[in-house]
Design brief:
The strands form 5 sheets. Strands 1, 2, 3, 5, 7 and 11 form a 6-stranded antiparallel beta sheet that branches. This protein has a 5-stranded antiparallel beta sheet with strand order 12-19-14-16-17, with helices on one face. It has a 3-stranded antiparallel beta sheet with strand order 4-8-6. The protein is globular, with a radius of gyration of 21 Å. The chain is of the alpha+beta class. Helix 3 crosses helix 9 and helix 9 runs antiparallel to helix 10. A hairpin with a 2-residue loop joins strand 9 and strand 10.
């Protein structure tokens, strides 16, 4: 498996309660994976060994981490990560007709920018739908892997430059907690940019003099049919591509399937078996990774190759109002707070295009959704 080249900067700053470093990463291919924990150990980052926990933040929208509990479900192995990525690549193939990749429609880009803007909608959708995170908190054990997955490390021979912040700490304390209400439009499928709400908390961080910590956004437990992620809020991606996925999770996987696939009785026997096997594998891999209850859909998937020979019927059954059962959209996101100067309060750490985004696939009964916001200090 390919891995990142990593260059470790000097510590940003250390004090009695925390230590922080920036990792500069250079992927060697479009899909690139590294075990950060092993890299930290190999690079003799002994300063982290005195801390029980480590917080890591990727400052990019197509390079992310997975929660420690999710990693355990995958066996905390490269094989498990490969299964995760395999399901993403089947569901969101490179080169499918994504709105985000139609550069002639990207009004926010200049003609020159359109020449070099990556065609990477598949990477954004995979990041969102497979539950990758911008920021994770791990119990630190140098022997346990922490995987960072870059889904979009290269485009037209140009390789990205990536940054990951790592902070070692032992404990946290909550210094502020409140709730916000997000107005929702009267439609089922929508994505809402919460970046303004995030930035509003910088003044409270300054008031509380939080040097290092985290800010969390969490949907209230009663909120159903919605999730929250961190990604790029680009109009075509959020208003067209993600809603297309919510309507039909297999839309892009099937976009390159021939017309014969829409008329199963006309498919020659061997070709049909191959097609059905591929669809079966896609759904099976995705469902194995899902955190939601998926018993009904699993039952269909298990029977797909034998008892459900009609492709359209299978797709229609999977793309029901439970269309997002296979998604790993979580109910919370977090951002690191960091300062490289002990005398100043920290800043919310976001990459250039990172925003917290609320995604719903069914309208709530009220016209708002409620989130709880917490500010926590590392101590």
């Amino acid at each position: 498996m390919l891995s990142f080249h990593i260059y470790i900067n000097n510590p940003i700053a250390s004090n009695n309660s925390t230590t922080a470093r920036i990792l500069n990463l250079s992927p060697s291919s479009r899909l690139d994976i590294t075990n950060i924990s092993q890299t930290l150990t190999d690079s003799d980052l002994s300063s982290f060994s005195s801390y029980e926990k480590i917080a890591l933040s990727s400052l990019h929208t197509t390079a992310g981490l997975i929660e420690q509990s999710f990693a355990s479900k995958l066996g905390n192995t490269q094989e498990g990560i490969n299964n995760l990525i395999r399901s993403a690549r089947r569901l969101f193939p490179e080169g499918a007709p994504y709105w985000h990749d139609q550069m002639e429609l990207r009004d926010e880009l200049s003609a020159e920018q359109r020449k070099y803007e990556p065609l990477n909608a598949d990477s954004h959708l995979a990041f969102i739908c497979l539950g990758l995170c911008n920021c994770v908190l791990y119990s630190f054990d140098p022997k346990e892997p922490i995987f960072l997955i870059d889904l979009d490390g290269e485009f037209q021979g140009i390789f990205r430059s990536r940054k990951v912040m790592a902070i070692g700490y032992n404990n946290v304390e909550c210094v502020h907690e409140d709730s916000i209400s997000v107005p929702m439009p009267q439609k089922d499928r929508v994505a809402i940019d919460l970046n303004d709400s995030l930035q509003n908390y910088q003044s409270i961080i300054d008031q509380q003099k939080i040097h290092r910590g985290i800010i969390t956004f969490e949907l209230n437990p009663h909120e159903k049919f919605a999730g929250i992620t961190v990604n790029e809020y680009e109009t075509l991606l959020m208003e067209r591509d993600i809603t297309d996925v919510l309507k039909n999770p297999l839309k892009f996987m099937l976009s390159n399937v021939s017309e014969f696939a829409r008329h199963p009785f006309s498919i020659p026997g061997k070709a049909k078996q191959v097609l059905m096997y591929e669809l079966h594998q896609t759904i099976r891999d995705g469902l194995k990774l899902a955190t939601r209850g998926v018993s009904a859909v699993e039952h269909i998937a298990e029977r797909l190759g034998v008892d459900l020979p009609l492709l359209e019927y299978a797709v229609d059954r999977i793309a029901t109002p439970l269309e997002t059962r296979w998604m790993n959209l979580g109910s919370s996101v977090r951002f690191l707070i960091n300062s490289d100067n002990d005398e100043t309060s920290g800043r919310i750490m976001t990459g250039t295009y990172q925003s917290p985004i609320l995604i719903q696939w069914r309208r709530p009964e009220s016209d708002v959704r409620n989130l709880k916001v917490r500010l926590l200090r590392f101590v």
